[in-house]
Amino acid sequence: MTDTTFHRVGKSEKRMFGPPCLVVCGYGADEQDGIISLIEGCGLLNHAVVFAGESDAGAILGDIVKGESGKGRGLDSGLARAIIMSGLTENELHSLLSAYRNQKLPQQLWATLTPISEGWTLTALLNELSAEAEAFRKRQQEKRVD
User: Fold this and answer.
1) Are 50 and 71 in contact (CB under 8 A)?
2) ∠128-132-138 over CA atoms, to 5°?
3) Which pTM value belongs to this model?
4) Are 82 and 129 in contact (CB under 8 A)?
5) How many other β-carbons are positioned within 10 Å of the β-carbon of residue 64?
6) Are the CB atoms for 117 and 61 separated by under 8 Å?
7) What is the pLDDT of residues 16-69, one digit of tens each?
């Protein structure tokens, strides 16, 4: 699953792949209102927000992003902490990432839905993102040692 090519996201109103949706993973019920406020503060009111939990782990991403907004809200999620973005404009993506960073929220995984990943299970994507994050951390540590 690692044979993908990465492209830098520009700053435009170009809409990225998929229906407008944010799949939020790994947040407790008590944290979800804060994430909703962050999303709304970025002007993403037209985007569905799906809170994925363990029952969604084997579901296909292309199906999850078509889910009803608010699904899973109020339920704790034991999945890896992540937000998977679908159908955002490039500017919306940058706005969300900046707002998250500015709030100094805990580090998490980020992904955008692609034509390839829409056929993956949520677990497969989260595992891939976790492996990539770990490889990146190791490279950063090696650079510090050199």
Assistant:
1) yes
2) 145
3) 0.90
4) yes
5) 24
6) yes
7) 999 999 999 999 999 999 999 999 999 998 999 999 999 999 999 999 999 999
